[in-house]
Specification:
It contains 16 helices and 23 strands. By secondary structure, it is of the alpha/beta class. Helix 2 links the parallel strand 7 and strand 8. The radius of gyration is 23 Å and the shape is globular.
Length: 495
């Protein structure tokens, strides 16, 4: 049996699926691999090789899957934190934190709570009552707010708030500090998380960690990391350093064995739905003065896009509310920058054509639509723009890439694909089923930059599916069996 880590010269007897339909017919084919690329594809038994053979066993081969939006270290460290995603009240979250063990650095950390759905509200007093001496941090599922106790406020040097909450940039700063584990701990967590991702067919991701990641990825690759490809972003504080070091989007990062490339400049231009800070055209219910926030002024966004474009960097602009999406498209129009709008959870009808005309990619997270459906009803019921568009974007000719925003949602491309196809994650009817997409469209959006294919000359980044994704019951898509994952012809997962 072909083992994990082995380089394969031939995949024998697999059916080909490239995200747009079968290549050829439904008969098993052989895939020859040389120098990390697909060398040939022929009827089963027609190709000979002296190298290692992976038995495709009739599985369906698709281009390796990508997650185009991951906060890598934060996602990797989730395994060490108390999970609060299913906590139904603030009181329940407090009880869980009271029973959790502090980490090695003396802090208690929980993550994934969704206070916008709770009947009660977070307070500093409630958290202090059970965790007064141990610095305790609860990270919102959307990462745009953090709930702290008094000991945590003192440790971090922030003035305590009555509700115990820090939001937006202050919350990001707390996350940066919590993620700044020692290098060995962080790298070990990333290695293990990468192995789990390969088990689900992942061969690449875009890393949006809020840190300077060039040195970290060189260090990880030097230590043997080889689970998937990476494109890493920089944020405005690191922009000049990236320019000074000559980093350009798409270019390989030296010292990473060909696995890591420079990605985009990442800008966060508004807040989030769950924290009620996404910049919208209409106010949030019960809060007539709250239209969300533009966290970077439109003038500054234009300046940053101009600098990035002149320096060979693409851009990834976080814009969730329709007002932020419109402002981002204005900046793309003004600067002719290339890149993505990340999230695009509320889009004006008039902006759909602008997306397509400008060639701006919509980098979206389908799982958010089903996770947030109740929040949309509560907070965006009066908005006139389209919430969580998928099919509408594709119909307008917009290029769409899929991701998870892990750890906000699970890093599992099949969970992402299922959410895009089904538009529900429970027993309820699909939410806005008119925005559902086909399995073929979802597979394409989940391949590298939405364009990967299985063809001679293409990288041998391949996932072997135990079932035909197009033929399974949609409720089973999220549990798609992955028989094997190959990265440049090397086995990173074998079931």
């Amino acid at each position: 049996m072909t083992a994990r880590g082995e380089r394969v010269a031939l995949i024998r007897g697999a059916r080909l699926l490239d995200g747009t339909g079968f290549l050829g017919d439904d008969e098993p084919l052989d895939i020859a691999i040389a120098d990390g690329r697909i060398a040939d594809i022929a009827p089963a038994g027609a190709l000979k090789t002296a190298g290692a053979v992976l038995d495709g066993d009739g599985c369906w081969a698709a281009p390796g899957l990508w997650d185009h939006h991951v906060h890598t270290v934060q996602w990797a460290l989730e395994a060490q934190r108390t999970r609060l995603g299913d906590a139904e009240t603030a009181a329940e979250a407090v009880r869980r934190m009271a029973g959790s063990e502090p980490l090695a650095d003396g802090r208690r950390v929980g993550s994934g709570f969704r206070d916008a759905l709770w009947p009660d509200r977070p307070t500093l007093a409630a958290l202090d009552a059970v965790a007064s001496d141990v610095p305790t941090y609860l990270i919102n599922a959307d990462v745009h707010s953090v709930w702290l106790n008094s000991a945590a406020f003192r440790r971090e040097g922030f003035a305590p708030a009555q509700d115990g909450m820090l939001r937006e940039e202050d919350a990001f700063e707390i996350s940066r500090r919590l993620n700044a584990a020692d290098a060995a701990t962080a790298d070990a967590a990333v290695q293990e998380a990468g192995r789990r991702a390969a088990e689900r067919g992942i061969t690449g991701l875009v890393d949006f960690d809020m840190a300077w990641n060039a040195d970290a990825w060189r260090r990880r690759c030097a230590a043997g990391f080889a689970e998937h490809r990476v494109e890493f972003a920089v944020y405005p504080p690191g922009l000049q350093r990236a320019i000074d070091e000559g980093l350009r989007s798409g270019e390989m990062l030296e010292g990473t064995d060909g696995l890591v490339r420079m990605g985009p400049l990442k800008l966060i231009t508004d807040g989030s739905l769950g924290t009620r800070t996404a910049a919208c055209s209409h106010a949030y219910p019960g809060d007539p003065a709250n239209f969300g926030v533009l966290t970077i002024s439109p003038d500054e966004v234009r300046e940053l896009l101009t600098t990035a474009t002149a320096s060979g960097l693409e851009v990834a602009v976080h814009a969730i509310g329709d007002r932020a999406v419109a402002a981002a498209l204005d900046a793309f129009t003004y600067t002719q920058a290339r890149g993505t709008i990340e999230h695009a959870q509320l889009v004006r009808h008039a902006d759909l054509a602008r997306f397509a005309r400008l060639g701006v990619v919509a980098s979206v997270q389908p799982r958010h639509a089903v996770d947030d459906r109740d929040l949309v009803t509560d907070f965006w019921g009066e908005q006139q723009a389209i919430a969580y568009p998928l099919a509408t974007l594709l119909q307008a000719g917009v290029e769409v890439w899929f991701g998870s925003d892990a750890p906000v949602a699970a890093l599992d491309p099949w969970v992402t694909i299922a959410a895009a196809v089904r538009r529900t994650a429970d027993e309820r009817e699909p939410w806005h089923p008119e925005e559902s997409v086909t399995v073929e469209q979802a597979l394409r959006a989940s391949s590298r930059h939405g364009r990967a294919e299985l063809a001679p000359g293409a990288p041998a980044d391949i996932v072997l599916c135990g079932q035909d994704p197009r033929a399974v019951d949609p409720t089973d898509l999220a549990r798609m069996p992955v028989a094997a994952t190959l990265l440049a012809g090397r086995v990173t997962h074998r079931a």
